[in-house]
Each structure stands twice: as C-alpha cells, then as structure tokens.
Batch of 4 targets.
Target 1
Amino acid sequence: MTTRLNSRAARRARLAPGLVALLACGGCFATRNDVRVLQSDIATLRAERAYGDSARAAQIDRIIRQLSLTSDTLRSLATESNKFQGDAREGLREMREAISQVQEVTTQLQRRLQEVRAAVEASQQPAAPVAGDSTAGTPGPNQLYQLALDQYQRGSYQTARAGFEDLLKRYPTADVAADAQYYDAESFAAEKNTAAADSAYAELVTRYPQSPRAAQAMYKRARLKQSAGRTSEARALYQELRRKYPRSDEADLACSAMASVCSKR
C-alpha cells in the first residue's frame, strides 16, 4: 500500500510540471509528445483511482460477507437455543405429568391399603364381646383412621377431628398416628382456625419427627406464618425445614418460598 501511494505521488509530481508548463505557455503550442505524456499520466491517475475504489469496494464486500456469515451463524444458534429451550420445557412438562400420575397412583394404593387394613382389623374382632375384656368391640387404629378420614373428605371436620383424636389417644404409636395428627391439623385449617392448626402441626413435628408428614406439617406452619405477614417466623421455619428434612419435596418448595419471603423484607 505504501509503495502504491508513493507511485501515485511520483506520477502526480511528473504531471504537475506539465500542467504548469501548459498553463504558463498560454498561447504557446505544446508538442504532441508532451500531450501524449500528459494524457498517459492522466489515464494512469484515473486507473489508479479506479483501482483504489475497486479495492475499497472489494474490502467492503468482504466485510459485508463476513457480517452476513456471522448473522447467519447467530440466527442458527438462536434457532437451536429456542429449540433446546422448547424441548426442555416439553420434557419438564412431561416429567411433571409423570410425577403427578405416580403420586396419584401412590395415593390410591395407600388409600386402598388403608381400607384393606381396616377390613382386616374388623374381621379379627370377635363377633360378641368377651366378659372382662374392655377392648372387645373397640375399632382398631386403621378402622378409626378410615372412619375419620371418610368424615374429613365429606367436610364433616368436627366429626373427623373427634375420630382422629380418639385414635391418637388409644393408639399413639400406630402406623397411622402421624397421618391422624396431620389431618387433625388440616381440619382446623379447613375451618380457618389458623391458631389451632398451627398448634396441631407443631405437635406432629414434635411427636412424630421421623414421619414424612413432619416435613409437610412444618411447611404448612411456615405458609400460615407467611400468609399472616409474620415473615421472620416463616423464614425461620423454612430454614429449619431445609436443615432437618433436606431431601423432602417440601425442602425444595421452601427454597422458592424463602425467596418470596426475603423479597418482602
């Protein structure tokens, strides 16, 4: 490029005296050779200018092509990213549906198992009470739980609560005791008696800390506190839930709930 510029400068230098001479002569006649030289130099300058313009045009064309290629690449990446995000969302939706179906089937199986247990207990009871046996004719824990749960599902919360509390009094260590305590609390919550519900949830965590219902009860307590605007207490419960039951589903829910609580500080 430097050599080309120097060459142009040299030609302009040669051309300038000729032009000056022609102008100086005024009415003088220039030789045909001078005219030819001058015309040659002018043609050379024009050619160099045209070459420079074409070189710049070619450079601009290269830049435009490169930009076009970059734009195409970005569009392709954006399309692939959108497709990936769409596939991920669809996969997540299908996974959630599958989990929901599994949970529904699990709930149905648990309900059916509970019904079978209640039926077995009923079949093992003597047809007539034995003299001196104070427990004769008394329903077993599964029977009491099933009867109370039926009342709860019908919306008869007080009747259901009486059944759950009777079960807890008679069979505090039964397999269904934690479930009975949970629905006892749920019956209060259904009646909007948040203070009694909170107390019943807390009692569940204290009496049955190893039950899966404990994490649910602690999460429900935190939600009650949060709904009441007691954010510091709710945050403390969420943190305790994550610490005590880190692998529970409620621990994951607590993460998002804590973000909501902290944003309102």
Target 2
Amino acid sequence: MNSGVDKVPIPVNNLNYKAVWEECTDILKNNVNPETYNTWFTPIIPVGWQNEQFVIQVPSRFHYEWLEQHYQNIIHAALSQVVGEDVPLVYNVVQKDEHQTFIQPVAVKKNIGEYMGDDTHLNSRYTFENFVEGKGNQFAKAATLAVAEKPGKTSFNPLVLYSGVGLGKTHLLQAIGNFAKEKGTAKRIRYVSSEKFTIDFISAIQNNRTNEFSQIYRTVDLLLVDDIHFLLSKERTQEEFFHTFNTLHQKGKQIVLTSDRPPKELVGLEERLISRFQWGLVAEIQTPDLETRIAILQQKAEYDSIVLPVEIIEFIATNIKSNIRELEGALIKLLAYSSLKGMDINIELAKIALNDILSTKKRDVSIEKIQRVVCEYYTIPDDLLRGKSRKQEIAYARQVAMYFCKEMTRFSLKSIGLHFGGRDHTTVIHAVRTIENELKRGEKKVVDEIEIIRKKIEVAVL
C-alpha cells in the first residue's frame, strides 16, 4: 500500500482488506520458514475492518494463543508496514462445541512492562487456578499459596522453589504475584528474572542510575526473582542483590526465588547469599506423575477449546514424562501436524507426528538396562531372568521386563525375545498383554509397582 509517493491519506477502513493481507503474507513469508508459514499463517482468513481495527480469523483458541505468543510482533509489524500506520489487530477465534460453531473476537494486547515502566512484569496467565496440582508439586503449591495470602508474615521468607526445567517454577512464582495483586495482600510487587536483574543493574551503572535502581528493588513489598542460579559468578551483581535481600528482609518484605537446584548446590554463589536463601523454606517441585500429566494435557486442551480423544491424551502423557514444557510441546506439535496435513487426530497420526520425539526418548534405553533395573527391584539374579525358570516370581519379573522393553525401546519383538534366553516373539506378546491387562484392572499395588520401576529405568538412562 506504500508506494513511496506522497498522497492524501486514505482512512484504513477504506483500504481493500484482502489486498492488505496479501501484502502482509508476502512480508511474513520472508520472515519465517516455509513449514512455519504453512502451519500457522496459511489457515488465517482476513475478515475485514472493524472500527479501524484489522480483523483476522483463526481456527482455534490454541492457534490464536500460539500466534500471539510467538508471532504477534512480526504480524503487527507487517500490517503496520503495509498500511503505513500502527493498526490494532483483532482475532476472530472459531470456537466449537457439540452443537454449533461460533466466533469469539479477541483483541491483541500490546506488550508492556519495559524497564522502569510497569513495575510488576507479571503475566496474568499464571494463576493458582490454572496450575495443575499433583503429588510432585503439592507441597510447593501449598507454600506459595500461603506466601501469597500473607506476604512477609509467614516463616517462609525467603521461599525458594527449585526443580529441573519446565516443571512449573515460573508459573507458581508469578501466581504468587497475580494473587497478591488481585487480593491486595501486597501493594508493590515486582517479578524479574535474575538475568533481567543483572541487565538492569549493568544499565544503571552505565547510566549513573544505581540509586534509582536500588530504590526500585528495595522498596517493593513482594520481590519475585526467577532463575537465581543465573547470578553464579557475577560478583558485582551478587553484591547488589545481597544488599537488596537484606534491606527487604529486615523490613519484613517477602522474597521468593526459583532455582534449578537447591541453594546448597549453587556453586559460584557467595556463601552469605546461600546462607540467607536457606533462612526460610526450600521446596522442591518434582517430575509430574502420569495422572498429573494427563490432567495438564486435559486442561490445556479444554482451555484451547480442542476436543481430544482420551486415548490420545493418555498416549502423549505415557510417552512424554520429563517435564511439562516438553509435554505441552508434544501436544502443540501434534496439533500443528494435524492442521498442516488437514487430518483428524488419532493414535496413528500421533505416532507419526511425534515419531522424532518418541525415538529420541527410546534411543538411550537398552534392554540390558531394563533387565538390570527390574532384577534389582525384585531382587533376583540377572541370569534367572534370561534362564528357563518358571517360578511365579521369576516369570512375572520377566514379563514386566519384556513389557518395558516393548514400551521403552525400538527393538523388535524378535530381538527382545532373543535377549531373554532366545524366546520367540509370541512369548513377548503374551508378556506385554499380561502386564497391560493387569494395569487396566487398576489394582493399586500393580499400578504403583510399574510406575516405580518406570521411574527407576528413566533415572538409569539419564
């Protein structure tokens, strides 16, 4: 639309919306790879102008959220470049239920929260209500909620949450801030990553604004710092954070930190900081169990208005175990693959779409490792598992091992049988079906036992 020739401005509502979007797509094609474009931009339908806002339609809430989170800026930039001015964007999201299809308009929010601007930096999506609780995070959830209800008035100060990546530390951390903000339990709240804290501090030094920087961080009622391990070996920043911590703690203000490991293992952090981090409560978030993984996927599907068969959710939850981020990533990949191919989601499609993820999971699992873990669990010698003994306890352990070999490796049934004393594939099939039937009956002892062995195998291949 911009030819470079001066002309009388045309009201945006008078511009041909289809031509505008066509030019936008030309720009977008040059900014993303072809697969990304086909998956996320081809399904977009331009709708028109509405009160000088450009309206586009997307096939689901999931699609809208993905575009907003990952491509909002380049879509907005392309639209502004074509039209010649800053134009608000509105999505029409197609929502489906059992009886009808309807459109829900969603306005895109502009990014806020630059340094020295919005002083919370919180993401409103992270709440306690949409955090899926399970055995591995119950304690951490209870501790964060207690802190959110009474910041600085519990013995959990500081509160330190630690876990591996993608297990919900950031979600709980920001949920504290959003709860406190909504309920008014803290007035001045600031969420920041330790990396952002470091960048802001360096910028303050360069611009002679260290007093202003200190004033911002030392006058809050609730300080939420993500990934504190990023401060390792940054001596000047650690010094600043030490004084910030002391000032807030002495005033009875609440401090909550997250880390990828417990404070005592933060090698490269000053001892005086490590000591202070252990003054309050240190809570671990563990890997979610199968039930929690299923609940997380169900919640994600419901939130995005996506109908998924139960067997699909169970398939993903059973095969993706390491962290929530990877779990949701698998769901996103499956949905994207389904959209790209124009195919309904079923088990066969899921296996194809997630093949590379599942293959990576199976790559490092050997039959020998599975046999060793099973033998250790049941306290039987390795040679009996591969031998001819038909004693009930030996035969059952052998079936369990075969079951895990089928589930967790890429070996054929014939190859698995050969590793168990030259047994044929029908024996393996019988073993697998026996354990699957046991699990379907849902006897707690069996389910718990299989889950314990599964976790031990996963640990053995790390």
Target 3
Amino acid sequence: MSVLQTRAVKKKYLMGQVTVNALDGVDLSVEKGEFVAVMGPSGSGKSTLLHLLGGLDWPSDGEITLAGKALSGLSDDEITLLRRRGVGFIFQFYNLLPTLSAEENVALPLLIDGKRIEDYQGKIDQLLDLVGLVERRDHKPDQLSGGQQQRVAIARALVTDPQIVLADEPTGNLDSKSGLVILELLRRSCDDMGQTVVMVTHDPRAASYAGRVIFLQDGQIVDQLALGETNDVERILARMGALE
C-alpha cells in the first residue's frame, strides 16, 4: 500500500528574471514500511522534494498524495493538521526547544495537538527506551550530546505514529559513530515498527541503510537502486559518480 505518491510534480522558482526548475516532473511512490533514501548532486532538488512531500511548500504543478489524501484538495488548516498528525520530521540541526527536557521535547507534538500527555505516557516511555534515553529524560538539550539530541528528535518524530517520517540529512551534523546509531534507529523503526521513512542524504554509507535509493539530477529522478547486497556502498558510489 502506497503511503506517499507524487505525479508529475514540478517546482519552479523565480530568481530575478530567471526561472529555476527545482523539480521537473517527479513521479514517486513509497510503500508502507519502506525506507527510501534520496541522493543527488548539490542543487538537484532533494530538499525541495522533501519539503513538498511534507506539505511545507506547494508544487507549481502535479499532485502529491499523502496517506490517501491529495494535498491539492486540502485547505491550509487541513494541510497543517495532516502534517501535524501524519508526518514526522527529523532535521539536521535537531530543532529541539532548549527550555524543555528530552521527555518534554518528545511529547511536544502531542501538546501542540491538544492531547493529554498522561494518556500517552506509555508511548513516550517506549520511545525513550527505543532511543536509549530513559535515564536522560529530564536533561535539557544543552546537557545532551549532538547524537543524543538527534535521538530525541527521532523519538519526537515517532510519537504521533505518523504515516511517514521525513529526514533531512539526519546524520549531517554528527560524528560517524553517532551517525551510525541514528541510522540504525531509523532502520529499526522500519523493521520493528513498520514505519515509513524518506531520507535525504549526501552520504552513501547513510543511504546504504535504506531499502531503495532514488537519484535526482536537475530536478528529475534519473535512476533508482534496490539495496540489500554486501557491496551496497560501492554500488551507490558508482551511481553517484555517474551523475557528477
């Protein structure tokens, strides 16, 4: 079952008197429980695509369907509600609130949605355990390492049981050891929880944790690679090298 579909999606920007085609007819389908990595050279449209998939921006043309709902048919309020409940976001720089504890940051999407935290305490505890931060639940972000902050961000992204998690360079600000922990957590969220993940990355090693890699160039999908072999990183490098 497809959780996410795009059909002939285009995105144009006007820079001065020049029109930039950031995306130029993207067709993509992501199945439930799938882990998809999006790669491509700088300026290929990776982040633009992720923003459109999450309803953070509007396409110039084409259609995006998320959780069975065509985004073009929704009002701004309905888009906001779908994004709040149906999409989990993980960013490169964590975006945690500095005045809140790790546990409070995890619970924040529930509070914004008007939920009673007491009703979801079991879920919060489960996620803190998943990311290995039960003993640091009362720590503020400045008392946590970068890797620990990103683990809080993952738990926060999962707390609403979203249809899909969108991750924008989630390991880009971390050392290699912390980055591997984050990638393993994302992989586990798919394998153990049936979560669907779309991750933008420039790192072939990060992409190798996905089940499929989409390659963008000049705003178009130019190649795909199904993973699961022992030499996945080398295969990804070879495909990226062909684009540059």
Target 4
Amino acid sequence: MDTKTIGVGPNAAAGRRPRGARSSGLDRALQILDHLQEAMRPVSSYAIAKAIGAPLSTVYVVVDDLVEKRMLQRRGDGMVWLGARLYHYGLAYAGSLDFLDVATHAMQDLCREVGETVQICGRDGDHMVVLAMADGPGHFRITSRIGSRVPLNWTASGRLLVGHLPDAERLAVFRHAARVSPTGAAQMDAEVLSQAAARALSGRLSIQISESDFSVACVASPIRDPAGACVATISIVLPEHRVLQGRERYTGAVMEAAAGIEASLGWQ
C-alpha cells in the first residue's frame, strides 16, 4: 500500500474522527495490551485502570471494544487476557522474518544436539524477552516461556544484548534497569555489569548460574548483525550441575549455533 496517497485530497478528512481522539483511543489500547504482556496473566479491568493511570470508565469501553474484536478475551470471572486475533497477527509477523525462521531452525537443532532447553532471546527496553523456545526432552522445566520478560541484569543473554553499546550508554542502561532477582544472586552494580557485558560480547559467550532461578544455569552466545550489534541471543538453559560438569560441551555448541545463524543470514 502506498501511504503517500492516503488522505491527500481536499475531502480526505471528511467523516473521520479528530486525529487527537483517534490517537488517544489507540494509545489506551496499547497501554492495556502492554500491561497484560508485562503481567503475563489475566487481569481485571479495575487492575488495568489502576496500573496505567486511566479512568475506569475509559478502560471498560476500550476493553469491551478489544474483546469484541477478539484482540482480548474475557474469562468467566471477568478477567481479561490477550485474544486469538493477536496470536494470528504474531504468526503472520513471525513468518515474514527471515531472522526468526533461521534462528528457530538453529534453536531446534541445538536442542536435539545437547538435549536441553534452548531459547532465542531479544531486548525489550530494560528487559530481555524470550522470542522462541524449544523444550529439552527431559523432565527439567524452567519458568520462562515465550514472551517472558526479565530484567537485563538477571540473565546471560541480557548482558550480551547491550554489550555492543557505547560505554556511557551501556552504563546508563544498567543503572536504570538493574533489579534484585528472586535468588538475590544477580549482580546489581552497574559498572560491574557494564564491564561484564562488554567482555561477554567480545568473547561471544555469557554464563549465569542461579541468578534468576535457583539451581538453573544459562549459557548464551550473541547473534550479531553486520555492524556488530547484538540483535538477539541463543542460549541453553539447564540445571546448574550439568553446566558445571560439561561446560566446554555447552559453550562450544551454543557459540557454534550463534555463528551458524549469522553465517546463514550473511551477517558474518
């Protein structure tokens, strides 16, 4: 669609709502969707209104509209959650991305090779977000699923995702983003985190053990674009004792997988 041709005629605005009103309604809808993504669970309209600082009456109207359009779904208890229409949009978007297609195949191959859970992760502001995931064949299960968001300082991938930034910018990110993890083991010092992030990206490897979850380790490697920026990571998530016993096996495999993704995309 050629957007340059939209609304150029003298009567193009006839019958349309004022731009400010339309933008305000869209902004409210996005605030609601963003809050649900962050909460990662069904939430009441009252809780949404309180969280985003909007009038309850406004939230009710927007939520009803989104439910009608299947962008939200309302449960029997009145709670609302993301709807089926968003899922189909996500599938269409994912299908158009060469990167995610290539990375997903590499993720599945790595999962079969090492027999552990493998994730593709990206950055969403102050958080790392799980973009894709392949469960290992064993009984070991982790709490982070597709769409999960955790502070950058909790994870091996989080450090890599900002490792390419200039020193001052990287330091500022960690000063703003660092949060205490559930285990209390995640590093909080912004300068230490900044230096560790730069080293990890340079070495193409980052490892964290029991920082976000007890007895859970993560071994990650960066996926870099042609300019050297870390656009995503591929990581192996496994019990702590296994990475301590077979460190070389897992680090070698994850670094090879990351390099393979870059090569397939012609980035390196």
